[in-house]
Amino acid sequence: MPDTVVFIPAFNEEANLPAVLEELRSGLPAVDVLVIDDGSTDATADVARSYGADVVSFGENRGLRIGIATGYREAMERGYAICGRVDADGQHPVAELARLIALVRADACDVAVGSRFAAGEGYEADRYAPSPSRRFGIGLLQGAMRLRLGRRFMDATSGMAAVNAAAMPIMAHRPRSPSGSQPEARAPRPPPMISSGASTPPEVPEPSAMAQMTAFTSIRLAAGPAVMSPRSSEWMAG
């Protein structure tokens, strides 16, 4: 069994999934792939299975926040050492996810988040220019994250990440108890959202989980520079 799984939260993504799954199979052939089907009314689940992905389907649409929490919970409960996440709309290049997974595998951090704003070798600082309204919301959310984390975080709304087993319970919104034991199994329940005071993008579940890491000082969080493609669909959080 591979030690790494990549999950894809999806709602009515039958048109976009084939390209995403083909890219994963080509770029990360040794990982398992899991699609979290959020009550799709199209053939999302069937398409995912036809490309060899495992599928967890909800009977109804439960929203992106629950879909993401379920992906991390499934990775944790299935015993994977590393879990990656990309969106179903094709905006997250698999080559960039592979870099994040490599950072976690090398034990450089426990959580590696792909950042559109972080600079690095081969990555210009101003390569991504959000719209004014989006820039305003992202800026306020970054400020809230800085207050909670005690340091600047470059891309609080990124939906591309890799985490190790130590961080999975937090990303699944099921933190370990002080004794280190897991709480009784139950459906993932999203934590209160971090509010920026403005309309925030749909990828905001992760900031709430990352903010919880302030209570787990051993968890190491890093933002790696990444290039992202334009999204081909829009799925709002529930």
Please describe the topology of this protein.
Blueprint: E1 4-10, H1 17-27, E2 32-37, H2 44-50, E3 54-57, H3 64-77, E4 82-85, H4 94-105, E5 111-115, H5 132-149, E6 161-164, H6 168-171, H7 205-212, E7 221-225
Describe this structure in words.
By secondary structure, this protein is α/β, with parallel strands linked by helices. Helix content is 31%, strand content 15%. The protein contains seven helices and seven strands. The protein has helices at residues 17-27, 44-50, 64-77, 94-105, 132-149, 168-171, 205-212, and strands at 4-10, 32-37, 54-57, 82-85, 111-115, 161-164, 221-225. The chain has a seven-stranded mixed beta sheet with strand order 3-2-1-4-6-5-7, with helices on both faces.
Short description:
The protein is α/β, with parallel strands linked by helices and 238 residues long. The chain contains 7 helices and 7 strands.
Give the strand content: 5-15%
Major sheet description: 7 strands, mixed
Count of helices?
7
Shape: globular
Gyration radius, rounded:
17 Å
Quote the average pLDDT: 76
Oligomer: single chain
- Would you count the extended β strands for me? 7
Termini, distance in Å?
33 Å
Name the poorly predicted regions: 176-205
Which descriptors apply to this entry?
alpha/beta; 7 helices; 31% helix; 7 strands; 7-stranded mixed beta sheet; 238 residues
